[in-house]
Structure formats: C-alpha cells, structure tokens
C-alpha cells in the first residue's frame, strides 16, 4: 500500500489533504524564519514548490524583497493584499483549501517582512522599506497605512473602528488582534529608528529624503534636536513640519465637523448665493406660478441663517511631556492649535515634566510649539497646576484637559487640586491616551479616584477627545 493510499474504511474527515499540507509548510517556514535566522533547507525547498504550484512569484519567499517590489512586478496582486487578513468567509461555510494556500503564502510574506527585523545598524532605505511593508500589513488588516502605528490622527480605515475593533460586514472580528498589534508595530518601528545612525542620515539630504515621518521618528528627532545643527537640523525640522501638517489635516477634518452653538436667528442672514434657501424660495413663491407660461415669478428670495450663537470659551490643555507621552504631546499640541483657530475659543497650552512651560504664545503653530518642548524626564503635575489654576477665570465656561499617564510624584496634592477644579464648575477631562492604538497605561490610583469623582479617564482614540471638546463648545 502506497503512502498516498489510505486504508480502506478511513473516514473522509481524516483523509490527508494536499492543500492543507501545503498551507502548513508555508506557516512552518514562517515560524522557523521568525525565530531562527538560519534557513531550513527542507522547508525552503518545499515552500518554493508550493509557491510555484499556486502560480505566485518565487520572490514572495525572499525576505529582502519588499511587498512594494512584488506588487510593482505583479500589479494584479495588489488587490489580494488589501484586506488579506480580514477576508470574508465563504457564505456556505465551506473552505476553499486551494485559496487558503495562496492566502497563506501572501500572509507569510507580509508577516515575515514586518516582524523579522534582524539586528545591527539600519539604513534609511531599510527603514523606508519596513515602513512600506508595515503599511501593507495594515492594509491586510483592513486599515489604512499608518493607522495602527499611530501618528496621523488615527483615522480608521473602512470598516474599522477607532481602536480597530470594527469590521467589514461578514468579516472575522479582529478586535482582539488590532489593539494589540498596533503598539507592537510602533515598538518595532521605534527600534529600527534607534538602530539607525540618525544624525548621519539627516546630514545627507539624499538619505534624509528617503525618510518617511512617523511618530517613532518624530520622537527621536524631538529628543535629539538640541544636538543637531546645520543641514541635519534643517532636515529634521522639515520632517517634523511634514508630519505635523499630515496629522493636522486629519484632525482638522474631524474638528471642523463641529457645530459650535445654535443658529442665531436675531442676526439677518447674509444675502449671498451660498446661503440661498432654494426650497423655501420656491415654496413661498408658488402662488406666482404661471401655467400658461410655465414660469415661476419670484417676488422674494429667502436665505438661510448661518450665524451661530457663541460665547467665549476657555480651553486649558495640560500635557505631560515625559518620555512615555510623546505621541500624546504631538497629537494634542496639534489639536490645541486647531481649536485655537475656532471663533471665540481661547486656548491655553501647558507642558510639563518636573518643570512646567506655558506654550500659549505659540499655540497657533504646533511646529514651533513642539520645538520648544523637552521630552523625557520625571513627572510632577503640581508645577503645571500652578500655571493652570490662575487661568480659570470663569469656571462654568472653562474646560481643562489634562493628558498624562498620571504616574505622579505628589499624588494626593495633585488630585486635591484637580477635584477643586471639578467642584468649581469647570469641566475637567482627564485623558490617559490619545493615540491611534488605544493602549494606555494609567495609574490605577488616579483611575479609581477619577471614576468615583464622576470624571472617568478618557482613553483610546483621539476622536473621543475631539467629541468631548465639541460637545462642550456646542
């Protein structure tokens, strides 16, 4: 009896499946390459045979070849990578095992390129290649490139919620995967940035041009900015400016959807074409319809009221600029500048570690604000409170947003001051995280007391903070 022929009477459910074996070969190779840099000859040979048998290019097995390169040579594969790991199951519950083999080859390619980062010095080209591959992984999970690693406002991709817990209709629930993988991708990127000779790269305009700004890269630039000069400093500033503009574009779209205050009908509408209420104009003039001429004569035009009642609101944003809060510092600095551009919103910005600095004079320019921060160090919120409290002139018309992990030095003293702000009538919003990944480490002591006070810590996606602020201003 040959190895291919099962014994008589063997149930169909346990018959060997060639496609299942092929799929297992690909995943065993993936695991072997992730945990051991040495190639396993038997797995490599078997995987090559599987890939060729499925009609896929052998370059999929080469970890030195990026997904971009694969797609450039084989454009038809781009659609297969999109949503690859959020694919819709077969409606009748059956499994297309041949399709699963093909999918396993593509999934293995993305995962190996992203998670097998090796060791040693990283070049600007290698970092750019990894960022591109990480973008393909995010696309495979149903997100847009950059969403899970954070830094661009975290605008979720189609069908994905702010924390990645949503899904396309009929797709698997990725809620347990995406919140966990986002911070891990960011950590991998941060490690690659640290392994790169950043100062040398910045000093070479050609190499600096290959860098793609990301939260990890911006963190390193802000930490090292005082050690840069000349061309390197200019390139660093250009990268920070580019990143700030990208994030601001996303956040501005979210903020500008706000309607601040009800319509003020005491002010006559401005008689311009964009305010013309065409439906009301037609309705009010229907009595002037001429059936013989089939023409409507308009005696009066009606316009919409667009001016809204607003009252000056003061927003005080206090941001912990210690090393663990870099992404919050970047996002909230930009967010503060956007709200500062709204009518009748008086925004103040304070950053602190063991010292506090009032950044209000530069709040309209997040780029200049970030250049004045000093990331890292310890945390003492009482020094920031000393600057924030005197700014609360009209508590009922003031919102205080405090962004920190709340691992503080003088906990009792700081919390007592925060409670006093809450009792005064001001709206106090403690924020533990404003990242795209949604992962936050908040001091449990503060978390429980904020909850008991009725001001629970806001953690997760920055859109939650935008919503809270728009509600207050409305």
TrEMBL record:
Protein name: VWA domain containing CoxE-like protein
Organism: Yinghuangia aomiensis
Domain of life: Bacteria
Start and end residues of each stretch annotated as Disordered: 147-168
């Amino acid at each position: 009896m040959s190895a291919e022929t099962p014994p008589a009477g063997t149930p169909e459910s346990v018959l060997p499946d060639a496609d299942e074996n092929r799929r297992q070969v690909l995943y065993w190779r993936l695991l072997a390459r992730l945990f051991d840099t040495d190639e396993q000859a038997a797995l490599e040979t078997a995987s090559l045979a599987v890939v060729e048998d499925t009609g896929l290019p052998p370059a999929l097995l080469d970890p030195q070849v990026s997904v971009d390169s694969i797609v450039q040579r084989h454009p038809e594969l781009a659609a297969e990578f999109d949503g690859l790991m959020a694919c819709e199951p077969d409606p009748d519950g059956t499994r297309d095992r041949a399709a699963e083999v093909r999918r396993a080859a593509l999934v293995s390619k993305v995962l190996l390129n992203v998670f097998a980062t090796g060791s040693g010095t990283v070049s600007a080209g290698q970092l750019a290649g990894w960022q591109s591959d990480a973008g393909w992984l995010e696309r495979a999970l149903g997100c847009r490139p950059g969403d899970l690693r954070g830094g661009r406002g975290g605008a979720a991709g189609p069908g994905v919620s702010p924390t990645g817990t949503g899904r396309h209709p009929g797709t698997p629930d990725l809620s347990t995967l995406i919140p966990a993988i986002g911070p891990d991708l960011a950590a991998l990127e941060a490690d690659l940035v640290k392994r790169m000779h950043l100062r040398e790269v910045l000093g070479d305009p050609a190499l600096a041009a290959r860098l793609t700004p990301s939260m990890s890269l911006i963190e390193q630039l802000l930490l090292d900015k005082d050690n840069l000069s000349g061309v390197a400093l200019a390139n660093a500033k250009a990268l920070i400016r580019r990143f700030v503009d990208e994030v601001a574009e996303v956040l501005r779209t979210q903020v500008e959807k706000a309607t601040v205050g009800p319509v003020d009908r005491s002010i006559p509408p401005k008689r311009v074409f964009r305010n013309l209420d065409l439906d009301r104009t037609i309705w009010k003039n229907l009595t002037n319809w001429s059936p013989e001429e089939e023409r409507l004569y308009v005696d009066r035009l009606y316009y919409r009221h667009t001016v809204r009642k607003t009252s000056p609101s003061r927003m005080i944003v206090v941001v912990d600029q210690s090393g663990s809060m870099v992404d919050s510092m970047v996002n909230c600095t930009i967010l503060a500048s956007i709200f500062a551009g709204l009518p009748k919103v008086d925004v103040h910005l304070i950053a602190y570690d063991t010292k506090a600095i009032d950044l209000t004079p530069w709040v309209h320019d997040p780029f200049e604000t970030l250049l004045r921060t000093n990331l890292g160090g310890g945390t003492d919120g009482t020094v920031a409170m000393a600057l924030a409290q005197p700014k609360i002139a009209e508590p009922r018309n003031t919102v205080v947003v405090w962004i920190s992990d709340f691992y503080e030095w003088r906990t009792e003293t700081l919390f007592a001051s925060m409670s006093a702000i809450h009792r005064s009538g001001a709206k106090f919003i403690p924020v533990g995280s404003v990242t795209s990944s949604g992962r936050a480490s908040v001091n449990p002591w503060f978390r429980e007391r904020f909850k008991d006070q009725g001001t629970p810590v806001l953690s997760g996606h920055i859109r939650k903070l935008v919503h809270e602020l728009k509600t207050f201003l409305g």
